[in-house]
Design brief:
Shape: elongated
Number of strands: 10
CATH class of the largest domain: Alpha Beta
Helix content: 25-40%
CATH architecture of the largest domain: 2-Layer Sandwich
CATH superfamily of the largest domain: Ribosomal protein L30/S12
CATH topology of the largest domain: 60s Ribosomal Protein L30, Chain: A
Radius of gyration: 20 Å
Distance between the termini: 50 Å
Number of helices: 8
Strand order of the largest sheet: 6-9-7-8-10
Length: about 230
C-alpha cells in the first residue's frame, strides 16, 4: 500500500457515516441500509462489517448473496481495499450467519421489552394490533397457515400481520429463552420494528441466492420465508 493510499481518520469516519455508497460490483449508488460493508481484518482476511462500525477502509457491496459471490469471483475486494487480502470461500455464509444472529439478537431485545407473545392459543387470543407473526420454518405447515388465517385483518390498520418464517424452532427458542417455540407474535412496538428491519435485511440477502428458480441451495432458506407483502 502506498502512502497516498493510506486513508485518514477523517476519510474513514466519513465512510462509515455516509448515507449512500456505491456498490463495488454494480457501481450503483444505494442507501447504506441496502449495502454490506467489508474491511480487511488484522490477519488480512476480508471481514463482513454488517453494522458498519469496524475500523479501516471499507468496500460496499449490495446486500445480496449473488453480489457477494460476484465480488469474490471478480477479486473486487483486493482492488477496492487497496491491499493484499484473502477472501474466505465461505464469505457469503459468514454474512448470512451474522445477519441472522443480528436479527435474533433484536428478537431477544423485543422479548425483554414485552413485545412478544408465544404459543398458538396465546397468539390467537392477543388484544390489539399484531405487527408480525414469527413462525418456525420447521413447524407444521398446516398449523402455520391456520394461524395466519386466523390472524388476517389483525395487523396495524386492520391489515394482515407480516409473516416471518426465517428461523428454525431451535433458533427461536434460544433467542426467546423458551424450551420450544413454533408460533410467536410481535406487538406493534418500537422494539418490534427493530427486529423486523433486521429480518428484512436478512431476507433481502437471501433473495439473491444464486440457485436456479425453484431450486433451494444447500443449507439456504427459501426467500419466501419472510413475507413482507402483508402490512
Amino acid at each position: 500500500m502506498n502512502e497516498t493510499d493510506v486513508p485518514t481518520a477523517e476519510t474513514l469516519n466519513a465512510d462509515r457515516a455516509a448515507t449512500t455508497r456505491m456498490c463495488a460490483v454494480s457501481r450503483a449508488v444505494r442507501p447504506v441500509a441496502e449495502l454490506l460493508r467489508f474491511v480487511a481484518g488484522p490477519d488480512g482476511q476480508v471481514v463482513p462489517d454488517i453494522r458498519s462500525k469496524l475500523p479501516g477502509r471499507g468496500v460496499w457491496v449490495s446486500n445480496e448473496r449473488r453480489m457477494v459471490a460476484e465480488a469474490m469471483r471478480r477479486k473486487i475486494f483486493a482492488r477496492a481495499l487497496k491491499a493484499e487480502v484473502v477472501t474466505p470461500p465461505d464469505l457469503a455464509a459468514q454474512v448470512e450467519r451474522l445477519l441472522a444472529q443480528d436479527a435474533l439478537q433484536m428478537l431477544a431485545l423485543a422479548n425483554k421489552a414485552g413485545a412478544i407473545v408465544t404459543g398458538f392459543e396465546k397468539v390467537e387470543g392477543m388484544k390489539g394490533a399484531v405487527a408480525a407473526l414469527v413462525q418456525a420454518r420447521d413447524g407444521s405447515e398446516g398449523e402455520r397457515r391456520r394461524l395466519q388465517g386466523l390472524m388476517r385483518g389483525r395487523g396495524p390498520g386492520r391489515g394482515d400481520p407480516i409473516v416471518v418464517q426465517a428461523f428454525s424452532g431451535d433458533e427461536l427458542a434460544l433467542s426467546l429463552g423458551r424450551e420450544h417455540v413454533i408460533h410467536a407474535a410481535l406487538r406493534s412496538q418500537e422494539a418490534s420494528l427493530a427486529f423486523l428491519a433486521r429480518a428484512r435485511r436478512l431476507d433481502d440477502f437471501r433473495v439473491g441466492d444464486p440457485a436456479p428458480p425453484g431450486v433451494t441451495a444447500p443449507d439456504a432458506v427459501p426467500a419466501e420465508a419472510l413475507d413482507f407483502s402483508r402490512s
